[in-house]
Amino acid sequence: MARIATRIVVLLVFSLVCVTGCSKSQMTEYVTATPKGETKTEPINSHLKTNLYGELDGWKPVAYSQKPTGSMIQHSFAQEGGDSDPVMSPDGKWIVFSSLRHSPNPDIYIKPTYGAIVTRLTSDPASEMQPSISPMGDKVAYASNRSGSWDIWVVGIDGTNSTRLTDSASNEIHPSWAPDGKQLVYCTFGSRSQQWELWIVDVTSPSTKKMIGYGLNPAWCPNPNIPKIAYQQSRFRGSNWYSIWTLDYIDGDAKFHTEIISNVEHACICPSWSPDGSKLAYGTVSQSNYEDGVDAPVPDTSGEAIFIIDLDGRNNLRLTNEDTINFAPAWGVDGRVFYCSDRKGIDNVWSIKPYQLDLTRDKPVDLSQHPLSILQAN
User: Domain coordinates of the chain in residue numbers?
Assistant: First the structure.
């Protein structure tokens, strides 16, 4: 339960996720046959996993080490606390992430992508999380509550010159760099709107800020020829699940708010751009993972999984199964998708290489989505 609580803080801190319509079975026992043909009554949670879609007699989770993993690689190796929020350096050689491995509150760390050593970038009694590496690879933006409320801070990649960019009573989280490194997009919970709002801040002049819409967990496209920002936003009807959206940020204005993917059975959260801006990775969350009495999620019906999808909403591909918790996806420069998983009991950073994925096309991808838009990838 501590691991689940930590994950919720790291992924959706102060988030107003509203989920409805989920029910639990009232069964507490079930009957099975013995080898002699007799019957016996057993507690339902001894073998049977109950979910919204029925009951699976005898099902047990299978450890990922026993499954064909293909291109899956483990990158961090915390044995206590756990790691989360991985992001890749522009050259692909380093991973910056937040971790609970040394303290009860998360700090920001950096490590070689394919090494085991870790270096601490922040060390504060408060919490630092959700790092974002600048396009030049020299700075890391992150969220910290060291001043009482959550604010956006920037620190050098060597851990020096920590600077606060935002300073308000509201909670400001999840920074993401513009491709030119001059601006950051982040989200804050509006005291008047009572919603999560998207804001742009000038890195060199932090007093220059602008609200561009409503949403949570924004991600700025790294391709400078695609001036788009992805984010998640909840519905205001039905299940209230989050879905993934994009907007075009052109000449200081937000235009063409477009829903990319939604699902009435789970929330779609935490979008991350592929290096060329043609695809998005995202995670899913289902309420049944956190219902009382459910010890393990049932595959294909509940859980947290990682998906990728084309920017036009096609080719929605699931990369991970749902019998483990998988969250916080981030793209690497070589097309690998990095994410956190508890598949060995503790949250650590893993990656997987999607099959049939080409991020180096000779012909640019036409990403025009609206009659008035003249923007294309080139």
Answer: 68-352
Tokens of 213: 């819409």
SS3 4: helix
Classified as helix, coil or strand, 368 is coil
* pTM of the predicted protein model: 0.77
Q: Are 322 and 288 in contact (CB under 8 A)?
A: no
Read off the tokens for 358: 């080409």
Q: Which CATH architecture has domain 68-352?
A: 6 Propeller (2.120)
Query: What is the largest distance, in Å, between two alpha-carbon atoms of the chain?
Result: 78
- 């999808």: which residue's tokens? 309
Select from 80, 73, 144 the least CA-distant residue to 108.
Answer: 144
Do residues 316 and 309 lie in contact, with contact meaning Cβ atoms separated by under 8 Å?
Answer: yes
Name the one residue in this structure whose structure tokens are 């009694």. Answer: 125
CA gap 254, 58 in Å, rounded: 52
In the predicted model, is pLDDT for residue 264 greater than 70? yes
Residue 30 Cα distances to 22, 40, 48, angstroms: 22, 8, 8
pLDDT at 322: 65
Q: How many residues are listed for the chain in this entry? A: 378
Q: How far is CA 37 from CA 247, 346, 368, in A?
A: 63, 41, 66
**Cα–Cα distance between 229 and 234 in angstroms, integer?**
16
Interval 321-356: pLDDT, tens: 767 889 999 999 989 999 999 988 999 999 998 865
How do residues 173-186 score in pLDDT, each as one tens digit?
999 999 999 999 99
Question: Can you list the pairs that 296-301 forms with residues at least 24 positions away whose Cβ atoms lie under 8 Å?
Answer: 296/49, 296/61, 296/323, 297/322, 297/323, 297/325, 298/49, 298/51, 298/56, 298/59, 298/322, 298/323, 299/323, 301/51, 301/52, 301/53
Q: What is the distance, to the nearest Å, from the Cα of residue 239 to the centroid of all Cα atoms in its chain?
A: 20
Q: What is the mean pLDDT of residues 135-140?
A: 96
Instruction: Report in angstroms the alpha-carbon separations of 168 from 10, 88, 122, 150.
Output: 21, 29, 21, 9
Distance between CA atoms of residues 228 and 220, nearest Å: 6
Q: How far apart are alpha carbons 365 and 349 in whole angstroms?
A: 30
Give pLDDT, residue 62: 53
Q: Which ranges in the chain belong to alpha helices (H)? A: 2-12
User: Is 295 buried (19+), middle (13-18) or exposed (0-12) by CB count in 10 A?
Assistant: exposed
* Residue showing tokens 């595959």: 299
Model pLDDT, residue 236:
74
- Best CA proximity match to 283, nearest among 303, 301, 299, 264: 303
Q: Is the pLDDT of residue 26 over 60?
A: no
